[in-house]
Design goal:
Elements: E1 3-5, H1 11-34, H2 36-63, H3 71-94, H4 100-124, E2 128-130
Amino acid sequence: MTTKMIIEMGFIGRTLKSAGIVGLVILIFGSYYFGFNPALSVFTGIIWGMVNLYFLSALVRLTLRPEGAEKAAALVIVLIKFPLLYFVGYLIMTSNFFNPLLLVAGFTINLLVIVLKAAGRALLKLDYVDGNEEQKSLKSV
């Protein structure tokens, strides 16, 4: 009885959706409990982190392919991600409107969502198949 791992490409997409939902919950309830500006700071950090993760996954998918890298598309992603996205992140961090500590908290919520989703999938063994059984995976997790 052999066990092999099934790699699923939808993990990043589900992570982005989950992080977006967490961000909206933080914006709504955080505005009520902590005020609009702190909640908006965390929400902005989450959105920036989601955009960063999206461009990073696009870059990895364009460059690490069995048929070879799509160099032109990867170059466009690199030119958007590194100078433009990080310059916007710098402007957000140095503005007086957002709290830098809450922005950093928002940046890290995406990583927390990734860790929790991966740990949940590993604990529930959703990415493994045994022998000739079909994949035991709940697509909504």
